[in-house]
Amino acid sequence: MRTTTPILLLVPVLALPLLCLSPAPATASPAPREAGFWMEFKLGAQLGFPGDSMLVSPSPGFVLGYRTGRFLLGAEVGGQWMRSQYASPDPTYSQEVNAFTVKAMPVLQVDLVRVDRLRLYLTAAAGLSYTVYDLSGGTRYRDRGLGLVADLGLGLRYFLTPRFAVGAEAAATGTYYRGELLLNGDTGATRSFGVGVRGALTVALLL
Question: Domain range spanning residue 98?
């Protein structure tokens, strides 16, 4: 069976703003704040490998936490959705799958390199997810349930002002899912494991 995925633009990963390459100003600029409440928005996409398929899906997120020195401890809430067309050798038969995931997980970031306004950091997160799959066409299939999700990656962040930063990050991600399916009126249990790569552009505010 051939899988046709939607053509989506994968977010450039670790693309540092050109501002960090500009000449230093004649006068010293204020250094980034070392502590405070942290708000961060992520505009990202995920390349996943469920089974023998390859799928690209939007994956935005929001982080709220507290930053002090080299460390950031917080919680991330994110979403992911995907739509794909599954075609069989019979050209008259096709099915469409829609999937939506919500995840919530504690996140820890640690600055590895700090040069003026630039930060290279390690990011790690692990938590829970809730996913709904819906397959329509010749077969009526619905699957929903809880799962475990974990991310581990690196990011670059540049402080435009002492309180405002932009950047990018990339992470490897893994998921374990256990759900309950409804197939043409019959019910059953499902289990699956998936891996992928996630990239995101970030915008952050230190309060």
Answer: 35-206
